[in-house]
Amino acid sequence: MKNVIYTLGFGVCLLSAGSAFADQFSLTSPDIQDGKMMSKTHEFQGFGCTGDNQSPALEWHNAPEGTKSFAVLVHDRDAPTGSGWWHWQVINIPATTLSLPRDAGNINGAKLPKGAMQIESDYGTAAFGGACPPPGHGVHHYTFTVHALSGNLELPATASGALVGYMVNANTIEKASIEALYERK
């Protein structure tokens, strides 16, 4: 009898956990995967890099209640700068938008939904700037994070990565990330 009770209790816990995971805010992509190397499609064009400089397609699921907009931030924590490198910062993505197509971060922003705003990356342009680690510097970790926000943000297109990060984090309800990798030998 004791074993039956334990088994039933364990089963209820598994069902509850499965339900909780099923409803979690999550980020997926057909182009990049957590812990896997990105393709040259997402490598920068410039600084000695010769990639296609296209942002990956991104899709998010189960936005939390109260979401008014989204922000997507891409950061390389391994860049030898002392503070990492901001590769892409997009804010004010409408709450009705649940994905961005590949190359949404191009300089003209034509593939972004109306109202979304790109802020200058550490490359100095308001667009996606692909991976471009120094040759021989080892594997770099690129964190793509979508933030569900409690409202739109008012920031200048030239805001620093620190200011964008501060404002985004101060208004985040929930976030989800993919950490992709890249290396130049």
Q: Any key phrases for this structure?
A:
single chain, 5-stranded antiparallel sheet, 3-stranded antiparallel sheet, 30% strand, alpha+beta
Describe this structure in words.
- The protein has 185 residues and is an alpha+beta fold.
- Helix content is 17%, strand content 30%.
- It contains two helices and ten strands; from the N terminus they run αβββββββββαβ.
- The chain has a five-stranded antiparallel beta sheet. Strands 1-4-7 form a three-stranded antiparallel beta sheet, with no helix packed on it. A two-stranded antiparallel sheet has the order 2-3.
- The protein is globular, with a radius of gyration of 19 Å.
- Residues 4-8 and 10-20 have low confidence and may be disordered.
Average residue pLDDT: 91
Order of helices and strands: HEEEEEEEEEHE
How are the strands of the largest sheet arranged? Answer: 8-6-5-9-10
- Structural shape: globular
Count of helix runs: 2
Helix content: 10-25%
Strand segment count: 10
- Quickly give the structural class: alpha+beta
Radius of gyration from CA coordinates: 19 Å
Please state roughly what percent of the residues sit in beta strands, choosing from under 5%, 5-15%, 15-25%, 25-35%, 35-45% or over 45%.
Answer: 25-35%
Distance between the termini: 62 Å
Query: How can the largest sheet be summarized?
Result: 5 strands, antiparallel
- pLDDT under 50 segments (min length 5)? 4-8, 10-20
